[in-house]
Structures are given as C-alpha cells and as structure tokens.
Amino acid sequence: MIQEGQREELSTETRSLRASGLTDEIGFLIARAKLVTLELVDEQLEEFGLKRQSYATLSLACTEYGLTQRELAASLKVDPSRLVAILDELQGRNLVVREVDPADRRSRTIRATDAGRQLCAQAAESVRRVEELLLGEIPAGERATIMGALRRIAFPSPRP
Questions:
Q1: Which of 24, 110, 131, 149 has the highest CB neighbour count under 10 A?
Q2: Beta-strand (E) ranges in the chain?
C-alpha cells in the first residue's frame, strides 16, 4: 500500500492497463494472474523435465482413485489425443503405468509408479515455493479467501 507522500512508480504498461479499466475486470485479472503464475511454475517444472499438463497428469495419477484416460482428459480439460502424448512421455520415463480397468477392459487406468510419486512430490514442493513467492505478502486469512473464491469460480455449483 502506498503511504502518503510516497510516489508509486508504475511502468507504462501498468499505467495503460489501469487507465483502460481492465484491472477492474475479473476476467482480465484472473487471466493475468494465470499468466504470471504459469510463467513461474513453468520455470520450476523445467527442472523436473515436466510441463504444466504433464505435472497435472502425474499429480492425478498419484491419487488413490486410479482415473481412466477419459476421466483424466475430462478432469484436465485436455483433448484425449493430447493426453495420449502426455501419457506416452510419462510412461517412457517410467513415471506412470497404464493398467486395464477392471470395470471396463477397453479402458486403461493411469497410476503413478514409485518414481512418478517421488518426482511429483519434488515438483509439488517446487510449485509450493512459487505460490509462496506470489502470495508471500498476503496474510493467511486473505489467502484462504482468495483460494476459496477461486475454487468457487473454477468449480461452480450446477445451475438449476
């Protein structure tokens, strides 16, 4: 927060954005926050040989639920053909395995290997450091409010 008598130094870009009114629009703010966040996350994931979608896929494969490829694609909002390429890469690195789904032999359930779980845990810690960098100056109560609001936006209740 700017104290009285303190001059705020703003870039031309920031002054232009504020003047346009975009910084008062939720869609713009969410998109901008996403871009800033993902740029930092991408830098961190590179260390592990992962990209955002492969990290998210691996994270879901580490859960106990054993999602099918179709369920993974729907959860991640990824085209199924793109998911196949992600899974091929992860399987090639021995991070996930495809198993026959006992409920439907035509489907494959994706599970992380021990190596996949270990890499995912390391990558998740790195992503948490990015979150701390981005949210570090925001008090815990406000963080919880922000996260709660974003969850409600990302996962809206069904409309009647």
A1: 110
A2: 96-101, 104-112
